[in-house]
Amino acid sequence: MHVDSYGVLNGLVRISILLSRSGEYVYWVDEPKLSDSEEELITRIRNELNKSLSLRSIPSIDNYSDVKKYVRENAESLLRRYIQDTDSESLNKVMYYILRDTVGFGPLEPLINDPRVEDVHVNGPGRSVFVWHNKYGHIKTNIIIKGEELDRLVTLLSQRIRRNPSSANPILEGLLIPENFRVELLLRDVSSMGPTLTIRKFREMPLTVIDMIKLGTLSSELAAYLWLMLDYGRSMLIIGPTGAGKTTLLNALLFLIRNGRRIITIEDARELYLLHDHWVPLVSRTSEIPGVANVDLYDLVKVSMRLRPDYIVVGELRGEEAYVFFQGLASGHTGLSTLHASTAELAFRRLISKPMEIPPTLLASLGVVIQINIVTTGRDEIVRRVVKVEEVVDVQEDRPVLNRVFEWRRDEDEVVKVNESMLINRVVEEYALPMEKVKAELDRRKRFIELMVKNNAASPSAVFELINKYHTDPESAFKAMEGSSG
Question: pTM here?
Answer without folding.
Answer: 0.85
